[in-house]
Structure formats: structure tokens, C-alpha cells
Amino acid sequence: MEEPKYPWETINMDCVTGLVPGGKENFNACLVLVDSYSKSIRCLSCHNEDTAMDTALPFWNNIISTCGILKIIIIDRDPKVISEFWTNLYVIL
Description:
Radius of gyration: 13 Å
Order of helices and strands: EEEHEH
Helix content: 25-40%
Structural class: alpha+beta
Number of helices: 2
Number of strands: 4
CATH class: Alpha Beta
CATH architecture: 2-Layer Sandwich
Strand content: 25-35%
CATH superfamily: Ribonuclease H-like superfamily/Ribonuclease H
């Protein structure tokens, strides 16, 4: 894979689950996004039970709206989950 040329062009995305519930909304998972260019990390609080739309909306609000459209997103998840995520992201657009 080609090295990214600028920040937030390419990211790795995964979800850490099974965390101790915390905060006023009892979040028990975290969506972790790593910029391949700068190695900076953004963590979005979430729940183990979140749907694809529950994930797509904070992704849009916290990543796309501030960093722009990404060129490559690397996700190590079930293809069905990835498809649902992208479908919901396009609904938001």
C-alpha cells in the first residue's frame, strides 16, 4: 500500500469493546481511529450494541466534518458490518 501524503488521507479503524461502562451515557466501547500519516489517534466513545448508523453518525460528526473525505479506511471487520457502515454514511451525506 502506498504511503499517505497528508494527514487523514488514510486511517485504520477498529472498535475496542468490553470496557467498564462509564460517563453519563455508560459507554462501554471505543471506536479507535489512527491516522496513518501522523500516527495521531482519535477515540470516539460508543456502546457494544451500537448499530452501523450509531457508528456512522459520530464518524461523520467527528472525522469527516473536521478532516474531510478520507481516501482509504482500513477496517478489520465482517464485510456485512462494513457494508452497513458505508450505506449509513451515504445516508448521512
